[in-house]
Write a structure and sequence with these properties.
39 strands; Neuraminidase; globular; 7 helices; single chain; eight-stranded mixed beta sheet; seven-stranded mixed beta sheet; 3 domains; 555 residues
Length: 555
């Protein structure tokens, strides 16, 4: 059978770029996988024209699927009349990258194939595909009034990664960790052209966390909570959220939590500065909360709010803090009197995890309510990290281990081999962890949810957060939504900034000999060099800390 093949090329975009001076061995690089922040991009969909061939109809439909105007009105024009109203484009989205290929099977069938990038489900959650995954869609065509149209046999969209980046936006919706301490994000993807995104975000928030996230977070909304008016109007920067009477069942603490969830979620929308929360037309009574709530109203629930500790490092086998006044010791004799190869603490500096010079002994020092020391041995420990719930995460015998201040906990990892985990880095909220893992492609980043039990920790829902990056050796949380990682596939070494919501990386530095790093919100970035020094980024300039190794920030 004769088959025609047509290539579908990604849309070319014009973006604005700026040159960054390069000096010495430290360089700054461009963003990867996104358009410039100042770029203005408009999606223009073309309607079907008389006489278009089958390939042109399918190509036109795929291109028009990137425009959500009028409920994907132009894309619907490529469909047969019976399917124009019944096709549900928001059921799911399949995203492809690179060149797509149309294969002419016969005059009534064209197959579309491409490399699969990701899938977005009906609750707007995205999951990234593996590099070898392929997308195959069959388009059936019939003639209507002598014009080819698509008799579509599937719901949902098929769009390119380019169209995803320019036509959709990623928004976090926020839930609460089970201890009611910090807000935790779950990202969703919504079309940019739809003006009712505030309404959609509230609907998704009220539906609660996804199935894969529900065991790790809670919501402050009582069962039955819903919008009393199926709309969240925005006027002069104020979003008006009107809930039904079910919300009145919420206790005082849960009213705070649901308000924090709403405010943190909706203030991500650029047009929203202030939130008013009502039950019907009356303001919802929330203790100590103003009628007009802003992002600062619930700052106490933000995981980065009190993350302002100085960095730790080792010099002359002693643990020091790097402060604006210089290097100082901990002022704790139990620590300052001994030699160490690595050390870190929790945010309150009441719990320390330290490694001896041989890295075979892990010491855990608890200073409250009274001093207590626990010690563990291994053939070789990795660098320990302490999360906000005082759990110590450390690699030992090439596997992740977890400890409380006085005992070892059982670690359960669902649907992933412990032997393929190379490092675990807890998020600022303590409800997620970043994993550096070994795969057939190299060393990659994953993110997992944390479920805490009395004597065990369970890592669930391990997911890819980026498509590229297969030589990752170190990673650190900059803040609750941003990771900085070191890719040692080349020399000089590249250091990237990664938005975990979008999966977009930006090459921020290129440094000869970089082998470790430590980052924290509102604190200097530290990069360890293989010559036994640490570079510290202060006010846009690099400063050298000589004879220093193993930088870390409390998590």
């Amino acid at each position: 059978m004769f088959k025609r093949i047509v290539l579908i090329l990604p849309t070319l975009l014009l973006i604005s770029c700026g040159n960054i001076p390069e000096t010495s061995s430290i360089k700054q690089g461009p963003e990867i996988g996104s358009n410039g922040q100042n770029s203005i991009i408009r999606v223009i969909a073309s309607r079907p024209q008389p006489g278009m061939s089958q390939e042109q109809i399918v190509t036109g439909f795929l291109n028009a699927s990137a425009s959500s105007d009028n409920d994907f009105g132009i894309a619907r024009e490529y469909l047969i009349p019976d399917k124009k109203l019944t096709w549900n484009p928001t059921k799911s989205i399949e995203v492809y990258e690179g060149q797509g290929q149309l294969q002419f099977i016969n005059e009534n069938q064209i197959d579309f194939t491409a490399a699969l990038h990701s899938r977005i489900d009906e609750t707007s959650r995205i999951s990234l595909a593996n590099p070898e995954n392929q997308l195959l869609k069959t388009f059936n065509l019939v003639k209507i009034d002598d014009q080819w149209r698509i008799d579509i046999n599937f719901d949902g969209l098929v769009i390119s990664k380019t169209d995803l980046n320019r036509s959709f936006s990623v928004y976090p919706i926020w839930f609460m960790d089970p201890s009611r301490t910090f807000l935790v994000p779950e990202s969703v993807i919504l079309p940019r052209a739809i003006t009712a995104n505030a309404t959609r975000l509230m609907q998704l928030l009220l539906l609660g966390p996804s199935q894969t996230f529900k065991d790790s977070v809670i919501s402050g909304f009582p069962i039955g909570s819903a919008l009393s008016i199926d709309s969240v109007p925005i006027s002069n920067g104020i979003a008006m959220v009107s809930l039904n009477e079910a919300v009145l069942k919420a206790e005082s603490i849960d009213r705070e939590i649901l308000a924090a969830q709403i405010v943190k979620t909706l203030t991500r929308i650029p047009e929203v500065n202030t939130i008013q929360i009502k039950v019907g037309t009356q303001n919802l009574n929330i203790l100590n909360a103003p009628i007009n709530q802003t992002a600062l109203t619930w700052d106490k629930y933000y995981a980065d709010a009190n993350r302002n500790n100085s960095a730790y490092l080792i010099t002359d086998n002693k643990l020091f803090k790097s402060t604006s006044e210089g290097l100082i010791q901990t002022n704790k004799s139990e620590i300052d009197s001994k030699n160490w190869s690595f050390g870190t603490s929790n945010r309150t500096e009441t719990l320390f995890a330290l490694l001896d010079e041989s890295r075979t002994n892990l010491s855990i020092f608890a200073f409250e309510p009274s001093f207590r020391e626990s010690s563990y041995n291994s053939s070789n420990f990795g660098d320990p990290k302490i999360d906000v719930f005082n759990t110590i995460w450390v690699m030992a015998n090439n596997q992740p281990n977890v400890y409380s201040k006085d005992k070892k906990l059982n670690l359960i990892v669902q649907n992933f081999s412990l032997e393929n985990i190379l490092d675990v880095i807890p998020a600022p909220d303590g409800t997620r962890v970043l994993l550096i893992v070994r795969t057939v492609y190299g060393t990659e980043l994953r993110i997992a949810n944390v479920k805490r039990n009395l004597d065990s920790i369970v890592l669930t829902n391990i997911q890819k957060i980026m498509r590229d990056g297969f030589s990752i050796s170190k990673a650190s949380w900059q803040d609750e939504t941003t990771v900085v990682y070191l890719d040692n596939s080349t020399q000089p070494v590249n250091i990237y900034n990664l938005d975990i919501f979008t999966g977009i990386s930006r090459n921020i530095y290129t440094i000869n000999g970089a082998q470790d790093l430590a980052t924290s919100n509102r604190q200097p970035t530290l990069v360890e060099i293989n010559d036994g020094t640490i570079l510290q980024r202060v006010s846009g300039e690099w400063q050298t800390i000589p004879d220093a190794i193993n930088p870390s920030y409390p998590h």
